[in-house]
């Protein structure tokens, strides 16, 4: 399976021939886990039922950490190739919450995705 490769600034990238670059394997799983965790419910135009329901009891109030962890884990497990997910929350800086999702792929590799 392949995904379009994103830059560090979350933009599409080009390969050496000027075509849209793709990514596969473990790097694809890591990139897709980060993308899924950052996607709001209804945001994908052609998959409006996908995404994390951040607007439902999560934004505006400080949600319970268990709710954030459960939603991040669920989003990560939707990624093809992700077998397990364990989210650890980091710091809350103003309105920005950071964290790490530890993913074991179906190939048995363990990756850490910072979100």
Overall pLDDT: 87
What is the total tally of β strands?
5
Major β-sheet strand ordering: 3-4-5
CATH fold-level topology: Nuclear Transport Factor 2, Chain: A
CATH class: Alpha Beta
SSE class: alpha+beta
| CATH architecture classification | Roll
Shape: globular
| Assembly classification | single chain
Put simply, the count of helices is 2
Share in β-strands: 25-35%
Distance between the termini: 23 Å
In helices, the fraction of residues equals 10-25%
Care to describe what's here?
The chain is an alpha+beta fold and about 120 residues long. The chain has one domain: Nuclear Transport Factor 2, Chain: A (Roll), CATH 3.10.450. About 25% of the residues lie in helices and about 30% in strands. It contains two helices and five strands; from the N terminus they run ββααβββ. Strands 3-4-5 form a three-stranded antiparallel sheet, covered by helices on one side. Strands 1-2 form a two-stranded antiparallel sheet. A hairpin with a 4-residue loop joins strand 4 and strand 5. Helix 1 packs across helix 2 (about 65-75). The mean pLDDT is about 85.
Question: What does this entry show, briefly?
Answer:
This protein is of the alpha+beta class and 115 residues long. The chain has two helices and five strands, in the order ββααβββ.
Features:
Nuclear Transport Factor 2, Chain: A; 115 residues; two-stranded antiparallel sheet
Topology:
Layout: E1 2-4, E2 22-24, H1 26-38, H2 65-77, E3 82-93, E4 96-105, E5 110-114
Antiparallel strand pairs: 1-2, 3-4, 4-5
Helix pairs in contact: 1-2
């Amino acid at each position: 399976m392949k995904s379009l490769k994103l830059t560090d600034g979350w933009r599409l990238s080009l390969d050496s021939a000027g075509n849209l670059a793709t990514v596969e394997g473990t790097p694809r799983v890591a990139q897709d886990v980060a993308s899924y965790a950052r996607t709001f419910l209804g945001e994908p135009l052609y998959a409006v039922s996908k995404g994390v329901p951040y607007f439902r009891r999560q934004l505006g109030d400080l949600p319970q950490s268990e709710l954030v962890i459960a939603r991040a884990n669920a989003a990560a497990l939707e990624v093809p190739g992700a077998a397990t997910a364990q989210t650890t929350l980091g710091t809350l800086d103003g309105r920005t919450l950071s964290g790490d999702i530890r993913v074991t792929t179906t190939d048995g590799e363990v990756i850490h995705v910072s979100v």
